[in-house]
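Re: [ENG-882] Designed sequences occasionally contain unexpected residues at chain ends

Forwarding the minimal case from QA. Structure tokens:
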């Protein structure tokens, strides 16, 4: 009647169809749970931020032709409970602290990342960091930060086992003014 190959194709087709429907159900039900927990805007407190701006001469820090480039680092306190972002479909949550500030008219808004962390377990999702140092030294596309004001925010990316990536950020922000270059009385502009 039917060959072994035809039977295998029929069974494989049914298994793949069932797997797609189960994956769709898993993704939609986990998204519904996250939306009910208002995952896009969870509270977080960013406090006691201290920024330091220095001059770097290395290409790895944005310098070109051995001319100095302003680099900024921060130390901060952070308190956040992001355990609501975890459910049975969450593989990991990528959490990062960003600063957004105005730039040139051709580049209206700049965004840099100072710190990040990958959280894989719900038990590790309560962040209580004291005097944490930034993971990255950042520089601007312009020559100087020129004591610009920046808005610090905690943002995250939920990476599920099945489904699409989801992004969110904390409700409030912390306003920061980039300082003058450390160890120099005047910064180049």
């Amino acid at each position: 009647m039917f060959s072994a190959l035809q039977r295998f194709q029929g069974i494989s087709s049914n298994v793949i169809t069932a797997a797609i429907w189960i994956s769709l159900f898993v993704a939609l039900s986990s998204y519904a749970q996250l939306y009910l927990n208002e995952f896009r805007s969870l509270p977080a407190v960013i406090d006691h931020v201290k920024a330091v701006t220095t001059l770097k001469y290395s290409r790895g820090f944005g310098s070109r032709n051995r001319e100095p480039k302003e680099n900024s680092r921060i130390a901060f306190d952070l308190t956040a409970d992001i355990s609501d972002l975890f459910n049975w479909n969450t593989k990991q949550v990528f959490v990062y602290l960003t600063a957004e500030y105005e730039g040139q008219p051709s580049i209206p808004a700049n965004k840099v990342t100072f710190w990040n962390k990958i959280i894989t377990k719900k038990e590790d999702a309560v962040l209580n960091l004291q005097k944490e140092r930034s993971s990255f030294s950042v520089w601007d596309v312009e020559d100087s930060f020129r004591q610009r004001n920046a808005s610090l925010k905690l943002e995250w990316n939920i990476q599920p086992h099945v489904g699409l990536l989801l992004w969110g950020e904390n409700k409030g922000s912390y306003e920061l003014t980039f300082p003058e270059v450390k160890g120099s009385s005047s910064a180049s502009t």
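QA comment: On inspection the terminal residues look reasonable. The beta strands are 44-56, 69-81, 90-102, 109-119, 126-133, 149-160, 166-169, 174-177. Proposing we downgrade this to a documentation issue.
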